[in-house]
Give the backbone structure.
Amino acid sequence: MADRKSGTDVNWPPLSPIEVGMKCACPRCGEGKLYDGMLKPAQRCMACGLDYSFIDSGDGPAVFVIMILGFVILGLALLLESVIQPPMWLQFLIWVPVTIVLSLWALRITKAIMIALQYRTAAREGERLK
């Protein structure tokens, strides 16, 4: 039986969206895998059977990752440049792979947190008013 207000099932205790997101686990049971691959959500939870068709994290996670990691990576690159002054090719050799790996990791986690928040608050696409 589903509780309409919260969007969660009555039999499942509410879980912390941050905890569940950090584990990339099912937002209802916290046990099953959320992803089928790196960033593609699975069809349903293998542990509790929750249908993941409600998932629509949108562009929010990508924006957070771009803004935060862009600031951090740029700051670290400028710090390295001012302290060591390595050649430009070495800067690229260091920061391009670091940026790609951190972006994928951060996107996976922020997307999982947004999905868990979407589940917890029963967020749905807005409807037009007549």
